[in-house]
Every structure is written in structure tokens, then in C-alpha cells.
Amino acid sequence: MSPLDLLARLTSPVVRNWPVCAQHGLAGAALLVACVATTDAEAQSARVSQRRHQPLSQHSAPGVAARWATLVNRKAAHKPQPVRVDLPDGIGQVAFFQGGTSEELSIPEHNLAVLHVGSLYRFRISDLAAHPGVELYPTIELIDKLHPPCGRENEFPVPVAFTSEEIAQAVQGRLVTKVIYVERPDHAMPVRGNARDRAYLAEPNENVLELAQRDGRPVAIVRLGGRTPDLARPEPGFYGDPAPIAVVPEVIGPQPAADFPEVLP
Amino acid sequence: MKYYLLGLATLVAVCVGCQSAGRDHSAMRNGPLGPSDQVVAARGNGGRAYGHGHHRPYVAPPAEQLVRPGPMVDGPGPGVLNAIGGMGGGYYGFGGGTTQVKFIEPLDMQVGWQMEGGFAEAQISAPGRYNFHQGASYRLKLTNIPGAGREGLVLYPTLQVYPSHPQTEAFLSHNAVPLQITEEDLDQVQSSNFVTKVIYLPSAEHQELAVANIEQLVSTRLDPGLDPVAEADRRGTILAVLRIGNMDMEGAAGGAGLGIHPASAIKTVSGIEGDYAAPMPIGGIGANGHSIPGPMMVSGPVFPGMPAQQPAWGMPITGTPIGLAGPPHLPYGAPAGLRSHTVRNMSKNHIPEPTRDLLIDVKHSPGINYPEPVRHIEYEERHPVFQHE
User: Fold this and answer.
1) For A262, B260, B285, B340, which has the most beta carbons within 10 A of its beta carbon?
2) Cβ contact, residue pair B213, A175, below 8 Å
């Protein structure tokens, strides 16, 4: 059966009464539409499958993403980057473990911890207002750095903000993994706000690192859980990499005027 | 005439189709960028093996294979590279190779364990935590279990701590594994039932939230015939398995767990008196544990009944005066004078020749499918433009 015969069977009797040349024209047009539709479907499937392959995810072992970043981005490898830890209600103590040992380095209020890209750090948060008696030991690994104006590095720390809900989930035994990224300027919402307000929750089957790369440039991975160190029996490796760390005072840059609009025009 | 029209239509359709496919493969964008689009897209060879515009979804190798991508990586011998991300606090040893187990309930229950030559009692009290080395099984001793009808009840469950996996390494280094023995579990055990609790980290398709949390399966709540270990392994990655029965391991004839020992050789350590001892592994993770063999083939931990100080794999066991395999220099202390040292094996052995050609067919499903290498990159930025009124 030829395509023309098939078309003649599928069409109404009105079409069958058309002149032969008109039926041939209709058959050609139908074939053309079918071919275009097929090629569009193929192009759609090709577009969907052109996503970049991301071998790392939030399930990767701690420190692997940072170590791979030092191999890929050698300009940022082992460079210092200030980090500010924001606790719920601004109340609590933050102390980093330095040198991969249990030796603590307390971070006073309005101070920053200067970490190095490519290393894994463990720190302790305690004396939380909404969670009395709770001590948590999250980790942070820097996989990239910011690029502020020279000499103003301490004005632009990487904000690590924990919410009360995240701390409650960690106490319940869940693992909270946060990827902090720099927004793409053409996708960023032109509103002011802190990192805590602009966090969003990913779906269970989504790769958080891939989402962050889609929306910008990942800078740090923070993991918050409920495991505590065993003080009686030393745990090698629990306190992170033997990487340097420093404490510097936070510098507040020039503030916008009071009548500065909340939403940019 | 009709064949002319048909041929013309086919030619136009092919031209339009090729142009459309070519536009998508080069990722040229004339319109505004959507929020889910990639600014930088790669153009490969266009799925040469699967037809124009057709290729299978990209599939990465397993995580374990990514850590050790090929030969001469992370194995025994000189000139071998470290595993990717395996140095320092990477894949190995960030959590110290331990799993922190948190005994939650019943409250005030005393947890001890088997040590060398006896039991260490009341080492921790619930709620309490302990870091168990991974890849081993431990015999616990539970005492002071509260509840009516539980007076004097002593249980000897086994705790099988699974080795960490790339999918569980992040969780285990940040979280403790909660272990909860409920009233229902205790009732089942006292009714001479065997209870198996499997604690596992569910895979993404079995999780309700993106915030990872573990789940557990109990044999008494599953349908008859279902293996909780196999079921948990299907749903995710197993972290620990607790098996509870009512066997008395310290009863008559020296106890079933310790064998027959002289009374002087049996040691007892009690945490109530301030004495503490580390737990002793009573076994490793077998083939059912899906353990990943270590990169270095060395002698494993010494368990009861095993000869101690087994040599590592590949090391010579023939002792010589200089510590290396070879002919001894006799007499000791004199200059080397031995010219010949021959050992003849006169045994009647029949050792077949090795197989000359061996064919092994392996198949991954789905197979590894990487994107084609990038050969063309087009980068386009669009910046917001603000106009003054």
C-alpha cells in the first residue's frame, strides 16, 4: 500500500472527491508536516540529553569535591577565603578545629575564619539560643573563592548560615548538606537579602552540586549532622585536613542609603 | 507528476530536518535564555554511533570505580597512584573508619561487649554513643533492661557494622547511627523469636526529603519469607545489622561464645567500676555484606581461633639472616662463601598447565556512555540593560 493509498483511506470521502492533483498536494503536505514534527522531536530529545555530566554530588565523600577543585582550578587552589558563620538569632559560639587536631580556635563575634580552598574543615557550634545544650560539628569544604576588589577581601566573606530548622533536623539524625554558590548575574533576583532567606530545598533525587552549577558558581559545601567526637578515643581524620586557618575581624563596607530601594529598577 | 511532488516534499523535509537538528547541536541561541538553559553547550560528534540526534542517556561509572578509575591506581606495588580524593580527609579515614552507634532505647540500659577473653560489661549506658570500627561484627551484652518481666534479662545480640561506601561516607562522618530496641523487640526475643534489625540509608528514589535520613527494617514486621537484609539492600545502602536472640553466651560449659576456657583466663571488666575495654571483632563482613575489598591485600584482623601474626600477602615467609628471601650465608658472621644453594622438590605432583586462552564476557547495564569530547564552544552573555526615563 502506497502512502497515497493510505492517506486516501484515512481521509474523509470529501477529500476523495477532490481532483487527483489536489490529493497529491495534500499527501505531500502531510508528509512534510510529519517529517518536520519528527525532526523537532529528535532535536528536543537531543537538547534534553545535552546536560553536562556531574560526577560529584552531595553524596560524595567529604573532601573529594575540594580536592578535585584544586586539580581543576589551580588558580584558586589553596588560596585564602574568609568565611562567616551565622547562627540562628545571632547567638552561639563557633570554634574551628585547626591543623586536623582537636585544638580549637574560637571565632569571636564579628570575626571571620580565613580558610583555604581545597581543604576540609570541621568546626563546632554550641550555646545556641533555641537549642540549649546542643553541640554540633559540621564541616565545610571550599571548592572555589570569591573575587572581591583587591584589599577588600574581608568585606566579602562566604556566608554560612544555619537556620533553627536545620539544626533541629541535625539533632534528629538527619544530614543537612548545603551548597553555597555565587549567583549568575543574569539569573539573580535583584533584591537584597541574606543567604539564610534565599536558601531553597532540593528534591531528593536532584544533584545539589549540579543545581548550584546550573544557577551559578559553587563555592562551598557545608554538611551538618549529629555525630560528636569521641573524646576518650581519638579519631584520626575527624577534625578535617591539617590546613591553616586564621581569624580576622569582619569589615563592614559602605552601606546603601536609607532610601535605597529594596528592589532594583 | 505525483512522484515529482512526493520527491520534492521529501527533499524539503530532509533539508528542514537537518537544519533543525544542526541548530540544536550547535546550541546557538537567538532568543532569551531560559532559567534552565545552559549558557555554554558543547557540540560533540553528534551521536555518530546511534544516529543523528540519537544517543543514550549519559551514565557514569559506579562511584567506587570513579575513585579507582583503572589499573595502577591505589593498589599494591611501587609506582602506584593514590586513589582520586583518597589522600588525607578524603574517601578513606575521614570518620576514622568508624561508625558511631547511638544506643537510644531503652533508657538506662547498660551496653557491654565481648572483649578478648571475656565480656566488658556496662561500658556505656543508654542513651550513649560508641565508635565501632567498620567492617566487623561485635558481640554485645545488654543488661539492666528496664520493664516489667525483664528483671535479670541479659541479651547477647550481634552488631554487624558495615564498611563505609562512597554513598554513605558523608553521612557516617557527620551522623551517628541510632539503635533502638523497642518493647516489641524485647517481647519477641523473650518469646524465643529471632529479631533482625537492619539500619540503612535509603537511596534517592526511596527518600521523602532531600535531607538524608536513615531508616530501619525489622524482621518481625515484614511479611514471612522476606529477608530484611536483602530488602534493605534493595532500598539503599546498609549501615548496620543488629541480630537479637535469647541465647545465653555465658552459661554452662563456659558459654557458647567463649568456648571452654580455664576460669583464670576469663576476664571481666565492668564500666560501673570504672574499667573500660575496647570491643573485639568476632567476625568480618562476609560475601553477603557487600564489602569492598581493600586496596592492599594484607592479612586481616585476627579473630578468635585464627593463628596470630599472619604474614601479609606477597611477603616471603622464608627467614634468612639478612631478612630477605635468598640463600643463607653460613656460617653466620663469616664472609659470604656459599656458591650454590639448591632445593629440589621430589614430590610427585600433577599440576595442570595454565589455561592458554580465557574468555570472560562481562556486561554492564546500562553501559558507560560519556558525552563526546567538546570540539566547539560558543559563549554568549546577556547583561541587563537599564534605561533612564
Assistant:
1) B285
2) yes
